[in-house]
Amino acid sequence: MWFATIFRRKPAVVEPPLFDEAFLRRLERLSLQAQRTLRGTPTVGQHPSRQQMPATIFNDHRPYVHGDDPRYLDWHAYARQEHLLVRLGEIEQEVAVSMIVDTSRSMATGEPARLRLALQLAGAIGYLALAHGDQVTVLASGQTGPVFGPVRGKALAVSLFRHLRALAPGHQTDLAQATQQVVQRRPQGGLVLVISDLLTPMPIETIAQYLPAPRWQVLVLHLLSQAELEPTLYGSLELVDSETGEQLVIDLDDETLAAYRAAAHAWRSAIAQRCTARGMAYAPVMVNWPLERQIIPFLRVRRFLG
Fold first, then answer.
1. pTM for the whole structure
2. 135-141 and 235-240 as β-strands: parallel, antiparallel, unpaired?
3. How far does Cα 225 stand from its chain's mean position?
4. d(CA 107, CA 97)
5. 3-class SS at 2?
């Protein structure tokens, strides 16, 4: 009967939330460490900028010009020098935060899966930016679906989390194309976060060309699995490329594994050196690291969070 079929249905698998509320409250104590050279909207956010405006708390003076607000005149300086001077102070600004999340097939691999950690990282950093008045945009590399943002305001954090949880792996990643989208949406510059396993060749020189310093600040979070860096496989195996499906039959012995480990180390080192040479920050993140107890402190040591 029809109702018997209903009762035999398997319950739907419900993905756990990215975070709990207690973690988000603790996260708000931190802030993104944006460079002063970035260009944002003055008086909206909480990041120091290089712009100076008349202010009651000051670090410099300039001569009075007709039309200046008399509230910012330094009368003590006038009493000493008999010249009208305006007190200048450093203003705060918002920063545009753009996050490029790799959603290729290989992001579904790893233990735990890389994509889950990528979504948590994007969610945590995006929430932190929204909570401090910054503008947030999320692009899924390789997907042609809608882009999240740009949005501003802590009230939109739920929409951010909902968008991230809807992202699924299965698309060929194109970091250069995603970078172009960032520039088209925010040509004046900002903070860009790339979250990827970088198993597709990383177009570092192209990204640096699109996002030149000091107008842009770029951080690459490289998600790595210990099983790939130090494999425990042995003997005759058939390997399948998670991106292309290409198959490779190989016999793994001690010599082959040693050569693989050396090549993996050289690959990571080369990416880090190329990023540094182009003014991009690089941070390797292991997928088995606990987010709050290990990854967040790691990003603080790297001075991305403060």
1. 0.79
2. unpaired
3. 19
4. 22
5. helix
